[in-house]
Amino acid sequence: MKKAIQFGAGNIGRGFLGQLFSQSNFETVFVEVREDLISLINKKGYYKLKILSAKPYEIIIKNIRAVNAKNQEEVNDEIKTADIMSTSVKSENLASVASLICSGMMERAKSKIDEPINLLLCENLPKASEVFRNYLSQRCPSPYKEYVNSHLGLVETIISRMVPPVPDSISTEDPLFVMAEEYNTLFVDKNAFIGEVPDIKGLAAVDNFAAYEQQKLYTYNTGHAVCAYVGYQEGHRYIWEAIRDKKVKQIVRGAMMETGEALIRKYHFKREEQEKFIDGFLLRLDNPALGDTIARVGRDPIRKLSPNERLIGAAKFAEKYGVEPVNLCRGIAAALKFVIEGDKESEKLARYLQDKGIDWVLKEVCHID
């Protein structure tokens, strides 16, 4: 059995990557810092994943172990005999992971292992491979840098699977239990692999990775945000409620069609494929089992209204390719009026509007002249 090392045993690690490795007959070794999770994984040797489809069902993720990230020697031993690695640890923890991997790669070099290994970077971080490569460069001693550069592929990925938080009542009883939607495709940068792309079910290796990154940002992220903000204006609490509102759905689909047309013009996506992608995402939003709230999806509107993000960035992108962003602007207007008690960013945005006015917000937050 081949071996995968997954850095991070959180929701994405267990609820997405763990499934991909399991259904591809890999043993999965989680490298984790939470001792309670480590102990439970090693005690049980499996966990339950509930798929939130129209007819929800559970699958068992087995052939799993865990090692403590604080035990460098154990991590080294796992890296020496691994076939693939992946991370899902949040960007602020990548430097620590780079130290672990650098040490493990040094052990592979000392053992004269010529077989390359690839690392799937499953992080919400622009240019994740460049950031991680820089961390490695800072931490690897000079004699090993050439080996690491030639034997470790840093592969960026696109995480589009929805993995909602598990209710406290369930996680208290079973801390390893995790839930996810049925969609489980992981787009990866085909050209970043060293050696062959591994045979992992759900892995979609694409040549023009930048095109799919923008497709995700300006279709998935844009549609999600517009649904939250317009849905909020219409008085809805959940995403599934909002997307069943004909007015909301029309604006959400319209916004994604505007960016979709720009994507077609820039990257030459096939029109029928882009429309299928949009319609498929609309169906994914209409999933009460996810329990996704307007408040969660809409939080942090100041960041989402920044010039290169999913709203303003999407509208500028559409305009650049000759598409008038009518529905995108409706989404932006709704975002400007989004206020959720307890969300500091939305409360700050409301104060800006009240104290400084809309023109100031458009100029200073959105960078629109």
Tell me what you see in this structure:
The chain has 17 helices and eleven strands. By secondary structure, it is α/β, with parallel strands linked by helices. Helix 8 (209-233) packs across helix 11 (271-285), helix 8 crosses helix 15 (326-336) and helix 10 (246-267) packs antiparallel against helix 11 (271-285). The longest helix has 25 residues, at 209-233. The chain is globular, with a radius of gyration of 22 Å. The mean pLDDT is 96.
- Shape field: globular
Q: Percentage of helical residues?
A: 40-55%
Please write the string of helix (H) and strand (E) elements. Answer: EHEHEEEHEHEHHEHEEEHHHHHHHHHH
Tally of strands: 11
Unreliable runs, pLDDT <50, ≥5 residues?
A: none
Largest sheet: 8 strands, mixed
Number of helices in the DSSP assignment: 17
Terminal CA distance: 58 Å
Report strand %: 15-25%
For the residues shown, what is the average pLDDT?
A: 96
Radius of gyration: 22 Å
Strand order of the largest sheet: 5-2-1-6-7-8-10-11
* Category by helix and strand content: alpha/beta
